[in-house]
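WP5 quarterly update. Target: Transporter. Source organism: Stenotrophomonas acidaminiphila. Length: 250 aa.
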Amino acid sequence: MKWLVLLLALSMPLVGWLSNSGLFGPTNGEISARYPTLIVAAGYAFAIWGPIFALDVVFGLGQLVSAEDSRRLRLIRRFTAAGFALTSLWMVVFTRQWFWLALAVIWLSLGCLLAAAWLASHTRRHVRQPWWQWLPLSLHAGWVSLAVFLNVAQVIVAFELLPVEDMLPWTLPLFGLAAVLLLGMLATLRGNPWYALPAVWGLMGVYVRQIQSPLAGATVAALVALALAVLLVGVALKYALSAPLPRDPA
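C-alpha cells (predicted):
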C-alpha cells in the first residue's frame, strides 16, 4: 500500500499534464468556456493544482519512509489511495465530457479526501500529526470541497437542467451548500487553516471571474463569493486565536 500511495500521487500531475495537453479531449478551460456558470473561478485559480500535487507527492514520500505503522496511518493510506486514484480518473472523464460520471467521481474523491484529512489533522491532547500528513491532505480536501460545486453548476448548464439565461436563482443555493460544507468541515477540522486556504483562494478566483462577467447576476455571485471567503478567513482566525497551539510529536 505504501508504494501504491506514492505511485498514485505521482500519477496525478502526469494525468493532469496529459489532460491539459488535449490528449483526452477538450481542456478544462475549453469546457468551462463552453458551459459558463456563475460559480466558476478565473483561470489562474486552477494553478493551485500545482502545489497540491507537489505536496501530495511529499505525503507519498513521507508515508513511504515513515517508521509509523499505526492503524490511523494505515487508514489514511487507504483513503488517500482511493482519493488520488479518483482525482486522476476525474481528470480523464471530465475532459471526455462524461459529466454525470465525472460528478459521481469527484464527490467520491471528496469523501475519501475529507476522511484522510480528518484522520491526519485530528489532534489528541493538543499533539498534532506530522505536517507532511495534515498539510497536503487538508489542502487537497479544501480545494475539492469547492470544486464539487463548480462541477455541479457545469452539469446543470451542460444539460440545461435549470434556466441558463438567469442562473442566479439556483446558483445562490449552491453557494449556500458550499458554505455549509466548508464551514462545517472547518469546524470539524478545528479551524485547520490549510483546509480553508484553497477554498478562500478559489472563492477569490470566483470573485475575480464573476465581477468581470457579462452574465446576468454575475455581480451578485461575485459579492457572495467574496463574502464567503471573508467568512472562512474569520472562522479560521477565530479558531487559531482561541484554541491552544498543537504541538508536533517529539
